[in-house]
TrEMBL record:
InterPro entries linked: DNA_methylase_N6_adenine_CS, RNA_MeTrfase_RsmD, SAM-dependent_MTases_sf
PANTHER family membership: METHYLTRANSFERASE
EC number(s) per entry: 2.1.1.171
Pfam family membership, one: Cons_hypoth95
Top-level EC class as recorded in UniProt: transferase
Superkingdom: Bacteria
UniProt-recorded Gene Ontology molecular function terms: 16S rRNA (guanine(966)-N(2))-methyltransferase activity
Gene expressing this chain: rsmD
Keywords for this protein: Methyltransferase, Transferase
Stretches that traverse the bilayer: none
The protein's name: 16S rRNA (Guanine(966)-N(2))-methyltransferase RsmD
Lineage of origin: Bacteria, Bacillati, Bacillota, Bacilli, Lactobacillales
Amino acid sequence: MRIISGEYGGRKLKAVPGMATRPTTDKVKESMFNIIGPYFDGGKSLDLFAGSGGLSIEAVSRGIGHATLIDRQYQAIKTINDNIAITKEIDKFTVYKQDADKAIGLLKGQESFDLVFLDPPYKTQEIIDTIQKLDSSALLNSQALIICETDQHAKLPDDIPGFSLFRRQNYGITQVTIYQKEN
């Protein structure tokens, strides 16, 4: 795994030890950022299931101003912090060891985001519920993009109230579904 492009491009990232996480492949990550960016002029991102932190670090490398990373596993948090240290700009990142639902409650009223990454264990219902919780907690800026990474069996809907389908793309067994918050 590596940071593909931007300020930190080419730097290697560590993977979370064990089988509890599945990192986004470089191919999928590069395609994902080509769709949503590929570069940003500030803004804030949120990753509720951060794993190694690779998606958020890539976003900051490409111009996102600040990234908030959430994961509930100790090994993931340790790996995220190690990977953030590679950037030498730790002030651009906030990391919480927290369950995603509790993190939404913690962030409510304090933050709002332009870009959200959702790559939970492959469970369809949680993604839809999580998007609705983010929206009802006022954590999403107008036109915010929500990038969902699932397997092809997840069958995420085209329509979610308050959101439009921005793009859906398959990469082998991985499917990336991107929603955009409507005004």
